[in-house]
Amino acid sequence: MMKDHNFWKRKGVFSVLLVCLLGSTNAGYASDPEHAMTSGGTTGTLGVNLQQQQQRITIRGNIMDTKSEPLAGVHVILKGDNSVATVSDLNGDYTIQVPSKNVSLEFIYMGMATQEQRVGSRQIINVIMQEDENLLEEVVVVGFGTQKKESVVGSISTIRPASLQKGTSRSLSNNLIGQLSGVIGSQRSGEPGYDGASFFIRGISTFNGNNNPLILVDGVERSLDNIDPAEIESFSILKDAAASAVYGVRGANGVILINTKRGKIGKPSVDIRFEQGITFLGKTPDYIGAYDYASLVNAIAKEEGNQIPYSQEDLEKYRTGSDPDLYPDVNWIDAITKKFGTNSRVNLDVTGGSDILRYSLVGSYYNTRGIMDRDKSYEWDNSDRLNRFSLRSNVDVNITPTTLLRVNIGGFLQDHTLSAGKKSTDGNYASLDEIFQTAFTTSPIAHPTRYSTGEIPVVANRANPWAWLTQTGYQTRKESSLETLFSIEQDLSMLVKGLKIKGLFSFDRYSASGVRRSKNPTYYQPANGRNPDGTLNLHMLGNGDEYLDYSSYGEYGTNSTYTEFSANYANTFGKHGVQGMFMYDMRNLDTGDKQPFRFMGIAGRFSYTFDNRYVTEFNFGYNGSENFAKGKRYGFFPSVALGWIVSEEKFMEPVRNVLSKLKLRGSYGLVGNDCIGATRGAVRFPYITTIDEVSGYTFGMDGNVYIGGMQEGLAGSPDLTWEKVKKLNIGVEVGILNTINLTVDFFQDKRYDIFMQRVNVPSSTGFTNNPYANYGKTTNKGVELSLEMNKRFSKDFEVMAQATMTYAKSRIDEIDEPVTVIGTNRARTGRPIGQIYGYIDEGLFTEDDFADVANGILKEGIPVPQFSNNIRPGDIKYKDVNNDGIINALDQSPIGGTWDPMLVYGFGLNMRYKNIDFGFFLQGNGKTYRIIGSGVKTFIPGTGANTKEGNIYSNYQDRWTPENPSQNVFWPRLSSTINENNTQPSTWWVRNMSMLRVKSIELGYSFSKKSLLPHFISNARLFVACSNPFEFSKFKMWDPELDTSTGAKYPIPRVVSFGFNLSF
Question: What is the CATH classification number for the domain harbouring 95?
């Protein structure tokens, strides 16, 4: 058995003398609660005579976890006599002497369920320890420290790290929505590298500043999507003032705390996860084909009394596809996309160590090839793809028994390649979303992707989507990051019990560079016929480039340093528990500008617990920002919280077996937001008056003398400061049968001093630009719910279920609006942030509304739209809200709701039966709206060869026509010219985008250890999974979660994957 040489260092001279007195190094002692083990691993008690020693029974055994890894440091205790105990060694082995066979042993290990084994006639007792989910959650990460879960009185959401690894997306943010109460958001795009979710903690509370939460990785401000889920050990979201006040001016939007994995005592443990996925195009709009398109153009021309542009012979050629050069039928979505893409992920996790040194090494590789097509005749590859390598190494070293050194080093390398996307007409470059937009708005008969003879056609002043994607070159963006952290913690319990001090320093470096090589293809006008020799009649629009041009290059980088000094105190005096924290921190961010970003502050926390029943806590942050004038840079942000653990009261004892937990808590406090622009750095030093250069002014009487000059730019204000939020939170936590846990929080945020540019400033003040001020006010309130159930029905069957719901509704209480808007239906005051405005439709015009249909003259008394002078029956009719007889911008009103959802919910279920496991997760949202009317604006058929523009969804038959004058149609009157009346934002086009998505499904099989042929494999699991297989929504035209009102967006892909987990 391995000897524990560090035992002597921990126990000192007293332990040596004790062994000498007992006369053998195989004797030992135990001091509760440490239950220390002697070098031989056997136990004894003081005052035990030799005869009693000889009567004892020696029990030996080995202790492992569910992965068949040995567990070191497990306490083995004789039940009823804590003086007889031992601790397992690094191999998981233990030896203990018991007085008789009629006793039981208890096996205790942090994070594991305590086991009890009856000795009986056994002399060898091997134990497999099972994880205890309740114990694993006893400690919660909070601001600048940890707390026991029972003593937490702030509103904090946590999630198991394994849940964050579901799905194949690179972006961690996509796995948060619906899994954590308090998180509201949506995934807005499926494009690799840009597929991160847009999310907020408890919704949107400011209409002008930044709404993004503060994200801290190992205590340092970093990007959420730059960390691989495999690196995470704990994940917490701080939502109320009690949890976030210590962050002061940075805590108003909530705080996300991520701690990365650390080493554990034991032999090296290696875990490998591999996943290979096949990605398919997500839900996109369905457009009509060439025959239907040409037929529709003819029908519209006939309705307007015009000559039909396509003969029956033309229609037949479109239908049969007999001449695809002159009568093409192009599905542009199919033209720019492949049948499928691929992605793969590999994670390697190595942990181990001793009681002196522990280490964790996590390496990850992620690769994805998207669904965009490429031209394989070129040597260069411009298909959308992303490669990412990340590595993180964390090392803990006990320099002395009371001194802990931690060193964290992590980083990633990433390259992202996609089409250069160069237009032929203006030289602008396009994102993939723009290419989708062009594909969605190009008609199927405009021209083929390229002619059979190789020429590439394009309509003048437009783009050929296929050529734009595949013929214009490539661009590559490379990113890298180095993240370092060094901390040293000193336990001063020898001076003051429970006191620890800590120093931390971090240096991060981020670099990004981009290379673009592009060319302009040679384009031709669409052919309008054939020459006598049968060749296409083509006209070149201009000479293109034969080769890619020289590389264009750009780069960007940031450096940041962070320093922190803190003192933590925790002690118990009988029924009284006291915790305290005080810290100082400073951050410097250099973006290459001459003016870096700096932050400095102090924070503190005091918590008192009485008899594990009553908790009170006071937090404060005193910090500031360089962005404001002297005297306005620092602020004090306090919070107070109270908690009552009702279930610990004596009067609850009769029902404690059923109502295992009942806790009430409340908090109130003040936090701030110094990110007063849309992004940090969008508004710098607004207290300084600026002077701007102007092109010039005329001088003299005749106005012929022109002189350059200067003028006042922004009028600074020395009184400007950060936004402030008063947060109120009331929560209740309920546990039932030690199996079901329910948490409900009610919250209200009152935000004021919102930074905005004033609107109602008289011109007589002489300001060139209206000044900024802390003027706005908002209220955001709502409720959130989290429900969990963990139940092991037998050793073979267990179930874990979770459900979350978050509802948050904002209201603008004060905002500076134009005088002409104040008090009208167009006012934003009193409305939610992001409220959609438009016209209220009253159906479609009928012939009865017209005095003269042919000339579009309405009857007297019917409001006249000012958007078009070509109003006809079938056009949208709007409500005259202000009763002035006309329809214009003054008639706009709040319609629908907000773009971002007010409601987000999720439900997940995981179960295991013997070696088979199955799980799924559902994510949904509600009260989210879009106006989709711009789709009609792109349908402008025209009649000439160079004016074949626009496209239309496949539901074109659901439209108003003279033969179908229904009010219950999707499309109002369609026309061959732009009809601005029918494209206005209105209730006609408002759609509720609420949806329920099946986010992930996974089925796995774990092999038993006996079936694993290689002896060094401790665990093996195979699985198949599916991400985003389908969604349920009343809106059927495209993925309702996308950030688009036309469907023209890189769709969220559907992924089928398979993989394995191996442990060694």
Answer: 2.60.40.1120
